[in-house]
Amino acid sequence: MQCDVLTLFPELIEGIAAQSMLKRAQESGRVCIRSHNIRDYIKDRHRIADDAPYGGGCGMVMKAEPIFRAIDALQDEGQELRLIFPSPQGIPFSHQLAMDLSRESRRLVWICGHYEGIDERVLTRLEPEEISIGDYVLTGGELPAMVMIDAAARLVPGVVGDPGSVEQDSFADVLLDYPHYTRPEGVRGYGVPDVLLSGNHAAIRLWRRKESLRNTYWKRPDVLHDECLTEEDRRLLREISQECEQV
Ligand code: ADE
Fold first, then answer.
1. Which terminus of the chain has fewer Cβ atoms in its 10 Å neighbourhood, N or C?
2. Per-residue confidence (pLDDT) for residue 176, from 0 to 100
3. Looking at residue 16, what is its pLDDT?
4. 117 and 193 inside one domain
5. pLDDT of residue 162
6. By residue range, what is the domain housing residue 236?
């Protein structure tokens, strides 16, 4: 997965990309993250990236030409580009979209806006996909870009050591995740469910499935679609519902 981020704040990108899983993903060559300072594509010596909006009003608007130039430079490298513009007006980001990005063979390019917005001609000429990470407004597109990169990178084969942990993940198979425990067995008087210490793999699988169903039933009933459930799931859900009534 090849990611290029056009930004006025490359340190924001580099700081996140240099840590943990994203760092290892790049070291292994499975993911490449490059940041490009839009200011480097400004011709005038003052290197001013924004200007007042035509028609007046408050705030500043990012200039179009430096962004066009940055895109031209990427295009000159020869690879096909898929352009993304993080925006609260975009389509909602999702696990499905993360999967799609993780499988993309084109170079992925995020154009990060700031201030009041960017010159509309960037959007009308380049027609990037507008993607939102939620119904709230952030100060810029950098954090949304890194959210998308992080979510997609961990789906690239080999990035997460144990592929099972990605498959069992929340939203990968519609259900939310089950609870996890690790050593020590007792923490401040709180124990670990007996079944997880039993060594009975069939019972552990069933317990995890049930707890996934319970989590989804309580936290995100909207993603619990009947057609995705097995007979066993329906039985477990009946048990969960009876357990609720008993409480
Ligand atoms: N830029 C500002 N807010 C955003 C959001 N919610 N999603 C994506 N990009 C944004």
1. C
2. 93
3. 98
4. no
5. 81
6. 168-247
Q: Is the pLDDT of residue 11 over 90?
A: yes
Q: What is the largest CA-CA distance in the chain?
A: 73
Residue 247 and residue 220 in one domain: yes
Q: Same structural domain for residues 110 and 25?
A: yes
d(CA 218, CA 191): 23
Q: Are residues 139 and 233 in the same domain?
A: no
pLDDT number for residue 161: 83
> What is residue 192's three-state secondary structure?
coil
Q: Are residues 31 and 146 in the same domain?
A: yes
DSSP annotation of 5: E
141 is in an annotated binding site: no
Is 154 a known active-site residue? yes
Which of 104, 116, 130, 150 does the annotation list as catalytic?
Answer: 116
169 is catalytic: yes
Q: How far apart are CA 176 and CA 167, in angstroms?
A: 11
Q: What 8-state DSSP symbol labels residue 106?
A: S
Selection from 86, 7, 5 nearest residue 39 by Cα: 7
> What distance in angstroms lies between residue 92's CA and the mean position of ligand 1's atoms?
10
Name every protein residue with a CB atom under 6 angstroms from any ligand 1 atom: 86-88, 132-134, 136-138, 141, 144
- The number of the ligand 1 atom at minimal distance from the alpha carbon of 86 is 9
Local confidence band at 129 (pLDDT 50, 70, 90 cut-offs): very high
Indicate if 47 and 140 belong to the same structural domain.
yes
What is the CATH classification number for the domain harbouring 190? 1.10.1270.20
**Per 3-state DSSP, what percentage of the chain is helix, strand, and coil (rounded to 5)?**
45, 15, 40
The reply to whether 122 and 204 lie within a common domain is no
Percent of the chain topping pLDDT 70? 98
Specify the ligand 1 atom closest to the Cα of 113.
1
